[in-house]
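FAQ: What does the model actually see?

It sees only this:
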Amino acid sequence: MRIAFFASSLVSAYWNGAATYYRGIVRALAGRGHHIVFYEPDAFERQQHRDIDDPAWAEVVVYAATEEGVLRALDRARDADLIVKASGVGVFDELLEAAVANMRTPENLVAFWDVDAPATLDRVSACPADPFRPLIPQYDVIFTYGGGNPVVHAYLALGARQCVPIYNGLDPETHYPVAPDPRFAADLAFLGNRLPDRENRVEEFFLTPAAKLPLMKLILGGAGWNDKLMANNIRYLGHVFTRDHNAFNSTPRAVLNISRESMARCGYSPATRVFEAAGAGACLITDAWQGVELFFEPESEILVAREGEEVAEVLRGLRSEQARLIGQAARRRVLAEHTYAHRALAVERVLASHAVGAGVAL
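And it is asked to produce this:
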């Protein structure tokens, strides 16, 4: 199948937390014989902060972040068997959403891939005049980054023909255990960009516990935190390139996952970094969210904290050998059930159900 994929960026993770999700999905689909052209705008200095060169498993088209640039990219993508518009491209999203929906013909499929479904649904529900709302029924399928039944039911209520969560996963060729790196030596590490619906939860689950653990070393990675007040035992790293993610996850005694507010409220939305960290054998501590037990077994494969104080309690009692065993168990689980190869099969099953009627060959 020839797939045209419009999204934020495949080659840069700079202010682009979905980068490794896109890489995992696209690479796995390419491994199954599909040809993918990934269209991304030259915006937000992402091209100046690339993490990878253009990969062999996808053609990357970087278009000008102008209306003319978008229209040229859309015209080039018109002959694809499947045309995907992902949420959060960052420039001309409304234009892209309408254009891709209108490119549907009897000979192709069009899909919307929502990498922030709770936020999208909140926005659309709050504004009946939102221009995306009438487009939802025009897409053959809505794929989502996660969200489980709450997201599925919400999209179906808005007229979606089909809504299928495609969860984050692990690319074992990209994320795996490596030797400890002194740059990332710490008792606890957290990696995440500063975003409005994440900041309060980072304060609760990371910054506040850090202040209560003055003898422990913590590291914070991600863009935007440079002017944030934090305890002296936190070392701020700034943007961490994906080439360093394995060392970042393999080195500390534990790695913290903090869901964005909308994701935590909806549940069933493990972040990309959860699987990356597990793939590197990290001992994960996560904030509580509904559905965590569908992905990892609490206490033996992941540690769950319902509030910030519990993060401090867990860390006080966590011994290095226990952390090592939990990390190993988490890695075994993701390799068995949660790789992007598993996710690509799920995508194919959905597309196959539509392809026959549309005359599209998988």
